[in-house]
Amino acid sequence: MSLLVVGSLALDSVETPFDKIDDALGGSATYISLAASYFSAPVNLVGVVGSDFPKTYIEMLVEHNIDLEGLQIIEGEKTFRWGGKYHYDLNIRDTLFTELNAFQNFNPIIPENFKKSRYVCLGNIDPNLQMRVLDQVSDPQFVVCDTMNLWINIMKQDLLKLIKRVNVFILNDSEARLLTEEPNLIKAAKLIREMGPEILIIKKGEHGALLFTNDTIFSAPAYPMEMIFDPTGAGDSFAGGFIGYLNQTRDLSPENIKRAVIYGSTMASFCVEKFSTKGIEQLSYLQIQDRFREFKKISSFNESD
Ligand code: AMP
User: Fold this and answer.
1) DSSP codes, 125-151
2) Is ligand 1 within 6 A of the CB of residue 117?
3) Which atom of ligand 1 has the smallest separation from the CA of 231?
4) Pairing verdict, β 10-15 and 81-86
5) Are 185 and 177 in contact (CB under 8 A)?
6) pLDDT at 27
7) Which pLDDT band holds residue 279 (cuts at 50, 70, 90)?
8) Nearest CA to ligand 1 atom 15
9) Is the CB of residue 127 below 6 angstroms from any atom belonging to ligand 1?
10) Which residue's CA is the nearest one to ligand 1's atom 16?
11) Protein residue with least CA distance to atom 18, ligand 1
12) Residue 2 confidence (pLDDT) above 90
């Protein structure tokens, strides 16, 4: 029942209106694996770091039952670094720098016992690397793929090839508009689903997420929060909660997919409460369940009294 996750492991420098942090743990695969680890164990991680990647981060991932056999540590190389700055409107983020470092020559090699994974999460990295990972999995049954504006801008054709092979494609509202050149999200969603993925999730930052399937649109709220410290990784934590829950339950019915969206939103809400990965490092089953139920409270109503 193990889950395969590929993506970046990073040292992030993040500036928000409230604080600033350097070389904090980040990366798409890091957030996805941590969020998924509360539902599925072990999480099989594939990625690369340099020899400067702190041992304490490795230990923390291992404590969460994340199997690092597929993690390449390149001697003498530096870890991928990303810098971002948030505006007062925390939905707006500028990328200050992206240093590929160890990712420059990364060739993902999937360990033998990871190849049989049925559930796969392709976290945000170069779509060619995501494709190389997928090519090595012997019989993938449920593939979730995330991306970002960078790859839509510079590798659109590769990304379009990849999404033909995935079941669920996750992106945010501005990325959906960028990919389709269509300003209306409902029309954009239709166009993206015609490109391949039967399930599409469009994240809308602090306004929740939209799930599009064959015959339904499901609108999930975001958890109303008075204090958001650092939105970094919210999208990845969403993806981790979503696929972690589906991998645990192995139920792809429409209702369970909706529940998975709410578990994704739950993990994203914990993520943004603290800097870096701190918000999803020490959660209990009870805390996750309580917040999951809160989502029901804030979005259900009676048709009449
Ligand atoms: P999110 O806030 O969910 O979009 O994800 C933020 C994480 O994505 C940060 O921890 C970054 O290290 C990572 N990231 C940013 N740019 C890239 C990129 N080009 N490739 C892979 N990961 C990235």
Assistant:
1) S-HHHHHHHHHH-SS--EEEEE--HHH
2) no
3) 2
4) parallel
5) yes
6) 98
7) very high
8) 82
9) no
10) 82
11) 125
12) no
Q: Is the CB of 239 within 6 Å of ligand 1?
A: no
Residue 156 has pLDDT above 90, yes or no: yes
Residue 68 to residues 6, 49, 90, 175, 240: CA-CA distances in angstroms?
A: 11, 11, 33, 31, 17
Torsion of CA 90, 92, 97, 99, to 10 degrees: 80
Q: Give the distance (Å) from ligand 1 centre to CA of residue 272.
A: 14
**pLDDT tens digit string along 77-106?**
999 999 999 998 888 899 999 999 999 999
Over the stretch 22-57, which tens digit does the pLDDT of each residue have? Answer: 999 999 999 999 999 999 999 999 999 999 999 999
- Angstrom CA distances, 215 to 123, 211, 212, 218, 254, stand at 26, 11, 8, 10, 10
Could you tell me which residues come within 8 angstroms of residue 55 by beta carbon, excluding any fewer than 6 positions away? none
Antiparallel, parallel or unpaired: β 43-50 and 3-6: parallel
* pLDDT of 255 higher than 90: yes
Which tens digits make up the pLDDT trace of 218-245?
A: 999 999 988 888 999 999 999 999 999 9
Contact between 178 and 152 under an 8 Å Cβ cutoff? The reply is yes
Distance from Cα 267 to the centre of ligand 1, integer Å = 17
Residue type, 271: C
Q: How far is the CA of 292 from the centre of ligand 1 (A)?
A: 25
Phi and psi for 54 in degrees, rounded to 5? -60, 140
- Ligand 1 atom with the smallest distance to the CA of 12 is 12
| d(C-alpha 10, C-alpha 12), whole Å | 6
